[in-house]
Amino acid sequence: MNYPIGLLSFWLLFWGVNASTFAQDNAMNISETPHPYLLVLGIAQDAGYPQAGCQKECCQAHWSGNRKRENVVCLALVKGEQTWLFDATPDIGNQLQLLSNYLPNKQTFVPNGIFLTHAHMGHYTGLMYLGREVIGAKDLPVYAMPKMQDYLRNNGPWSQLVDLNNIVLQELEAEKSVSLGDGLNITPFLVPHRDEFSETVGYKIQSSEKTVLFIPDIDKWNKWDKDIIAEIKKADALFIDGTFYDNGELPNRDMSEIPHPFIEESVALFDALPAVQKAKIHFIHFNHTNPVMDLESEERKTVETKGYKIANEGDIFSLTKP
After folding, report:
1. Domains, the chain
2. H/E element holding 161?
3. 3-state secondary structure string, 199-225?
4. Residue 133: left (phi > 0), alpha (psi -120 to 50), or beta?
5. For residue 252, what pLDDT is reported?
6. Each residue of 183-224: pLDDT tens digit?
7. Per-residue confidence at 80, pLDDT binned at 50, 70, 90?
8. Does 140 score more than 60 pLDDT?
9. Residues 6 or more apart from 163 whose CB is under 8 A from it?
10. How, if at all, do strands 37-42 and 74-79 pair?
11. What average pLDDT is seen over the chain?
């Protein structure tokens, strides 16, 4: 069935779909609405997919042409022609190009700001592309917690970005909101993770009508000082850590040294929730070994059959109620 473009755009915005299945002119039409929305720009763990040096079947499936490349996890918040990124990944070049496809006037651009979660490689190293060797950004606001700011100020090459005013650091405080205008508020909250160089935060992204939680990294749900079940009930959607599917996924490594909640653990924990609550959950931040990235895997089918969502590049989630 052929839908009028305006109706298609309305449906995409209000219900949230994988926009990557639609033509770019449709995607551009989406951006003409003033309503804010979140756009998934990447779903992979810090090293991306395929991962460097991996000779396993999971990554060779890409090189043989059977699976597409996946960007490192990143969300964009879009409000008209204003955009903000959640994390600056090594794939920021690809992600800015993808983001431009959703804006009315395609051009080389930088976002209006970047919110960082922590100092692990996939979440901040994209800042290097803002420097004089590439974009040469001017006074780009980068929102970060105190230890994250200290890390950027006192370690090269990141300190050069600060010294040359490519970026302007904006200090965050846990549980204190940052207003982006028009009822949009961003609130960082601390989560337990391997904090070698900085704190780790998730974000509450709120419009006047909806609330979304973004938690790409956390050690285990029971280590958090908040009740994840209660948070699910209060939010409209959650993009949460799905790094590994189960224990033993990395047979030659001690997985306790890189703790994350296995998807199997999360599903078991959330199993008693009604379907409407499960449907809020979007797993994201997948290691290259995670079978849910394979569209045909039994593991992915199991998760989706239980009522949960697997995030995809190009997914859109509206921050406005229908």
Report:
1. 5-318 (3.60.15.10)
2. helix 158-163
3. CCEEEEEECCCCEEEEECCCCCHHHCC
4. alpha
5. 80
6. 999 999 999 998 899 999 999 999 999 999 999 999 999 999
7. confident
8. yes
9. none
10. antiparallel
11. 88
Extract the tokens encoding 308: 């949960």
Nearest residue to 195 via CA among 230, 148, 235: 148
What sign does the dihedral 242-247-252-256 (CA atoms) show?
positive
Q: Strand, helix or coil at 236?
A: coil
How far, in Å, CA of 128 to CA of 65, rounded?
Answer: 30
- Compute CA 126 distance to the chain's CA centroid, rounded to the nearest angstrom: 14
Distances (CA, A) of 271 to 56, 161, 275, 281: 32, 46, 9, 12
Q: Annotate 40-78 with DSSP letters as a single string.
A: EEE-B-TT-BSPTT--SHHHHHHHTTSS--BPBPEEEEE
Total count of residues recorded for the chain: 322
Burial class, 197, CB count within 10 angstroms (exposed 0-12 / middle 13-18 / buried 19+)? middle
Q: Quote the pLDDT of residue 40.
A: 97
pLDDT of 254-285, one tens digit each? 877 888 999 999 999 999 999 999 999 999 99
CA pair distance 32, 9, nearest whole angstrom = 9
